[in-house]
C-alpha cells in the first residue's frame, strides 16, 4: 500500500513522503539535510545499516531543513520531505509501531524541534500508534566515551606522527542551548585526557568554542608549525565542512571570517588540502552504532 503526506506548502517535498508499507513497523531517520553530493552517500550508508539492524521495519529518511530540500530538489529533481509529512503518511498507512531516530549530534535546537513539535504532534494525531524516539549522538558519558574512542582510533595514525586533529562541530547559540553545547566540551575533555592531548574541538555557532578558541588551545599544546588535520564533528561533511572548515582564501571576507584552514595556516600551523578529512560521523560504523544503541534503548524503555 502506498500513502503520501499532505501539506499546506507549495513545496514539492509534499509529494516526497511516499510510504510503501511492507511491514507493521516504520522507522523514520531524521537529519538536518545537505545540498552536497557526498553526504547523500553517507545517508544511503546509514539507511542500509539501519535496515539491516531493524529488518522488521520499513525505513525512511527525512530532512528538517526546507532550504536543503528545495535546493537539493532543484539540483537533482529528488525531493526529501520534512518529518511532519513523513509522520502523517506513516500514520495514514496504518503502521502498528513507529520508531523515530534523531541523526543529530547534540540535543540542541534541531533535536528539540523533532521531539517537542514533530513527534509530539504525531502522538496527538495518532493516539493509538505507539511511537519511540531515539536520542541524538552525544547525550550520556557512555556516548562521549564510545564516540571519542572511535575518533581516536580513526585518527591514531596521524596522531602518532605528531600531528593534531581539530574537529568542527556545529553548535547552537549559547544563550539558548548551553546544556546541549556542553557535549562538545565533554568530548573534547575526554579525548584530550583519555586519548591524545592533540585532539581539539571547536564549533561554527557556539560562542565559547569558535576557531579563535581552537587556536588558543593549539598554542597551549603544540608547536606552531604542527600539521593540523581538520574534520567535521557533524553527521555528514556538507557545506560547513567544505566551506567553513576546508575552504580556500576568500578576498571578499574579513580575516576572522576565513575558513579554519586559512586561519590556522595564518596562525603558523600547517594545513594542506590533504589534511582536510571530509568524512562525516555517519561514515564511521562505530559511531553509527551509538545512534543504533539509542534507538534500541528507547524501544526497551517502552516495553
Features:
alpha/beta, Rossmann fold, 2 domains, 15% strand, globular, disordered N terminus, metal ion binding, Cobalamin biosynthesis protein CbiK, Anaerobic_Co-chelatase, cobalt
User: What level of helicity do the residues show?
Assistant: 40-55%
Question: What are the low-pLDDT stretches, counting only 5+ consecutive residues below 50?
Answer: 1-11
CATH class of the largest domain: Alpha Beta
Helix/strand structural class: alpha/beta
Output the strand order for the largest sheet. Answer: 4-3-5-6
Choose one word for the global shape.
globular
Strand content: 15-25%
- How many beta-strand runs? 9
Order of helices and strands: EEEHEHHEHEHEHEHEHHH
Reported for the largest beta sheet, the result is: 4 strands, parallel
Q: What's the CATH architecture of the largest domain?
A: 3-Layer(aba) Sandwich
Distance between the termini: 28 Å
Number of helices: 10
Number of domains: 2
GO biological process, one term: anaerobic cobalamin biosynthetic process
Protein name: Cobalamin biosynthesis protein CbiK
Binding site for Co(2+): 170, 240
GO molecular function: metal ion binding; sirohydrochlorin cobaltochelatase activity
